[in-house]
Amino acid sequence: MSEHLFRKLPSVTALLELFPVADGCPHDHVVQAIRSELASLRSQITQGTLAKPFPSLQELANSIRLRIQHAATPALRPVINATGIVLHTNLGRAPMAHAAVAAALESAHQYCSLEYDLYTGKRRSRQHGARELLCRLTGAPSATVVNNCAAATVLTLSALASGCEVIVSRGQLIEIGGSFRLPEIMTVSGARLREVGTTNIARLQDYERAISPETGLIMRVHPSNYRVRGFTREVGLAELVTLGRKHGIPVVDDIGSGAMLDFSAWGCPGEPIVHDSLSAGADIVLFSGDKLLGGPQAGFILGRKDLIDRVEKHPLMRAFRLDKMVLAALDATLRLYADPALACEHLPVLKMLSLPLPELESRSLAFANRLRDIPGLQVDVQPSKAYVGGGSLPDVALPTWVIALESSTCSEEEFAMQLRQGSPPVVARIQHQRLLIDLRTVFPDQQDSLLQAIQTALTVAG
Ligand SMILES: *Cc1c(COP(=O)(O)O)cnc(C)c1O
Description:
Elements: H1 3-8, H2 12-16, H3 27-47, H4 57-72, E1 80-81, H5 98-108, E2 116-117, E3 122-123, H6 128-138, E4 142-146, H7 149-161, E5 165-169, E6 175-176, E7 180-181, H8 182-188, E8 192-196, H9 204-210, E9 215-221, H10 237-247, E10 251-256, H11 274-279, E11 284-288, E12 299-303, H12 305-313, H13 316-319, H14 324-336, H15 340-346, H16 348-353, H17 357-371, E13 377-386, E14 398-407, H18 412-420, E15 426-427, E16 429-431, E17 434-437, H19 447-461
Parallel strand pairs: 1-15, 5-8, 5-9, 9-10, 10-11
Antiparallel strand pairs: 2-3, 4-12, 6-7, 11-12, 13-14, 14-17, 16-17
Bound molecules: pyridoxal-5'-phosphate (PLP).
C-alpha cells in the first residue's frame, strides 16, 4: 500500500544533477550521501513514519547537503564543557596540562627513545621512565602502566590469580559504566570470585573464614561511583594486609580515582590517596590516569616487585601496553607532582577543583554582564551544586556558581541543542527550565568563544 510512495522516490541520477561538480565536493561523497538519504526515506516509508507531504526535490537536496557536511565533520571534536563536571567521562575526562600535551606532540612527530637506552645503546622496557617516576613519587617498590584501570584489573587478576579464588566483600562488587562489572572481569581473567559478608556488612572473620588453599588474592575495591550508607561496616586495608601476611596472600587495592594529593581540603573528602594505600601495606595498588590524577587515559599497577614482574610477563601485558604519546604525556604529568603547588597550578583538573568559590563567583558575574546585552535573554548568577564526575565522589556535591539563562524566544532544550551543534560545540546543564553555565570547567581563554556561541545559538534558535 506504500507502493505509490516508493514510486515517488527520485533516482540517484536525478538527485546527482542537483549537485554540480563545481561544488568542489568529491563525487563519491555526494553519491554516498544520496544513497543514505534514499535509504532513510525507504525505511520511513516502510515504517509509515514519513512526514506528509512527500519532501520536495529542494528539501531532499538540503537534507543531502547536511549529510555531506556531517560526514566531513570529525566525530571527535573539541568541546566547551560548561557543565561544571570536571571529570566528565563522555567529554574525555581530564583535560591535560600543557606540558603533557607538548611532550605527547614531541614524541609523536619524531623518533624517540621509547624502548631504547641511550646510555648502553640496548633495548630497554618502555615502562622504565614511568616506573622510576612512580616509585620516586609514591615510595612503591615497583610499578607498571597499561591502557586504563580496567586493563590494570584484568591483567593483575589474570597474572596473579588465574585458577585461584579472589576474596572480595559483597559491598564492593562494582559496575563501572558499560560492561565493566567486577564479577565478570574475574571470570574473564580465570579467577574465581569468593564473595564475603553482605551488601552492607563485612567483618574480618568473614575474610578469615573464606581463606583456603585455593585463595590467590584478597581484593579491596573502592566503591567510587556509589556509597553504601547507614548500618554498614567494611574491613580496613591495614587489617586486610595483616590477615594477608599471616596467610601469605597478597592484597590488591583498587582505589579507582588515583588521588596523589589529599582532596579533602577542597571539599572532596573520602577519596583514597595512593600513598596511604601503599603505606597501609597493600601489595598491589590500582588506579586510573585520567581521573583525579589529571593525566592521559592510563591504568597504574604499583606495588611489590615480584608481583609486578609476574604481571609484566603475562601475555596480556602486550595487548594493554601504552603508546609513546601517552607515555610521554604521563611522564610530564607525573613530573608536576614533584611539587604539589606546581601540580595545582598546572594540572587543569586540580586547578578547577581547587578554584576558590569567590573567584568563580566574580568570574561568573563578569561573564553574565557581557551576556546582558543579548536581547530576549534573562541572565541570573546563582549558587549551585556540581559533581566531580568520572565516577569520583558520587555523593559529594561541590558548591559552585552558575549563570542561569532563559530565552524569551526558544525553549531550554532548543537552546541547549543549538549550543551543542554550534562551532565550537558547547555542552551545558539544564535545570528547572533554565540553561546553566558553570564556568568552573570553562577555560578562561574559551570565554570569548562561549559568548559568541551563546549569541549564535540564540540567533539560530530564534
Ligand atoms: C574508574 C574505575 C575503574 C576503571 O578505570 P578506567 O581507567 O576507566 O578503566 C576501576 N576501578 C575503580 C574503583 C574505578 O573507580
